[in-house]
Amino acid sequence: MNVLVIGANGQIGKHLIEQLAQEGKHQVTAMIRKPQQADALEKLGAQVVMGDLEGTVDELAEVMKDQNAIVFTAGSGGSTGADKTLLIDLDGAVKTMEAAEKQGVSRFILVSAYGADQRSKWPEEIKPYYVAKHFADRAMLASDLNYTIIRPGGLKNEPGTGKVATGVDLKPGSIAREDVARVIAASLQEEKTYRMAFDLVAGEQSVSDALGNL
After folding, report:
1. How far is 17 from 5, CA to CA, in rounded Å?
2. CA distance 64 to 98
3. DSSP of 104-149
4. What whole-number distance in Å separates Cα of residue 20 and Cα of residue 154?
5. What DSSP line would sit under 165-189, residue for residue?
6. Region label for 165, one of left (φ > 0), alpha (ψ between -120 and 50) or beta (otherwise)
7. What is the pLDDT along the chain (214 residues), one digit of tens a residue?
8. Among the listed residues 116, 112, 151, the one whose alpha carbon sits nearest the alpha carbon of residue 130
9. Ranges for the NAD(P)-binding domain (predicted)?
10. Which of 11, 40, 47, 120 falls between 20 and 30 A from 170, CA-CA?
């Protein structure tokens, strides 16, 4: 498969590119906004293409030419305000879905957040972030895309263990970003994840077993 990673310069995105390149099963392309990001991502094994989530749907569709799958793991980051969160985490995600449908790319993996589907779980201090994730998820669920929505718990920068738990309404937990990337990579062609939304935290099962038991 030709896999386009949106949010490639983020920490999960970089892990994912490196893992896909090492596996050698898929050709991975990183969408970047700044030319200076290209060198590091090419060294990890990606081709690069310029694109901007604040651009138009048509521009994003053009970026998706010749792709078979989209991974959206972009985010505005913790240092921006609610305005950028809406523009990137919500509208950027929805425009990407619209562009994928326009370009005929059906396989789409969306990285959301634990609890995004349940308002009672939203932390007050980052509620705009959860609003964005919630409605991006809803747009995905209403689409005709062959989606997978992954809702990871608290993200850690420590090395991954390869042991995870997946399911609906899991107990709160955390997970290494490296393991989130492993789950994304394994989900690309795992039919049990097709048109599924699930929580993801560190656990006791291998990635393949956890996804196979969904």
Report:
1. 8
2. 11
3. T--EEEEE--TTTT-GGG--GGGHHHHHHHHHHHHHHHTSSSEEEE
4. 23
5. EEESSPPP-EEEHHHHHHHHHHHTT
6. beta
7. 999 999 999 999 999 999 999 999 999 999 999 999 999 999 999 999 999 999 999 999 999 999 999 999 998 876 678 889 999 999 999 999 999 999 999 999 999 999 999 999 999 999 999 999 999 999 999 999 999 999 999 999 999 999 999 999 899 999 999 999 999 999 999 999 999 999 999 999 999 999 999 9
8. 116
9. 7-190
10. 11
**Where are the domains positioned within the chain?**
2-212
Q: Are 183 and 166 contacting, i.e. CB atoms less than 8 angstroms apart? A: yes
Task: Please state, in angstroms and rounded to a whole number, the distance separating the CA atoms of residues 202 and 149.
Answer: 17
Q: Quote the pLDDT of residue 148.
A: 98
Six-digit token string for 118: 């349940």
Phi, psi of 39 (to 5 degrees): -60, -50
How far apart CA 129 and CA 10 sit, in angstroms, is: 17
Distance of CA 50 to the CA centre of its chain: 18
Torsion angle of C-alpha atoms 75, 150, 162, 185, degrees rounded to 10: -80
Strand partners, 29: 4, 47
* Residue 78, pLDDT score: 65
| Rounded Cα–Cα distance for residues 107 and 85 (Å) | 24
**Could you tell me how far CA 91 lies from the centroid of its own chain?**
15
